[in-house]
What does this fold into?
Amino acid sequence: MTIKAIHILCILLLAAWLAGCPKPMLKGYTSEGDQITVEEEAEQENPRAVASLQLTDQGRRLVEERQPDRAIRVLEQAVSLHPTNGRNYYYLAEAWLMKGFADQAKEFNHLAEIHLKEDSRWLIRVGRQADRIAELEK
It folds into this structure.
């Protein structure tokens, strides 16, 4: 066997072995009853989506701990990795709302609404958030 053939064989064996390895699964969100959806479970095969979901959870915790500046930095990273995850925008709106910046909160709330339109439970939360933003604007 030539060196090239041995390399190809090794690559094929490694690929076959990796294909049989179980895929890592993130645990569902626990705060406020949030759960990872079937779509998000499928996205977990994408390393960028996995990293984004982990950052989303970290950002959510920072919002809950009333650390909006840190939350914003983390959630912006999550958005850059996975721009269609509406929860990132929801929590960004929460952080900006916490800081008292209604314009930024409103923009992120709108993006959350766009990306979470298929989830009625989240749309209710987004609507309540929009009401709080409107109160801040008065």
Observations:
- The chain has one domain: 3-137.
- The longest helix spans residues 47-64.
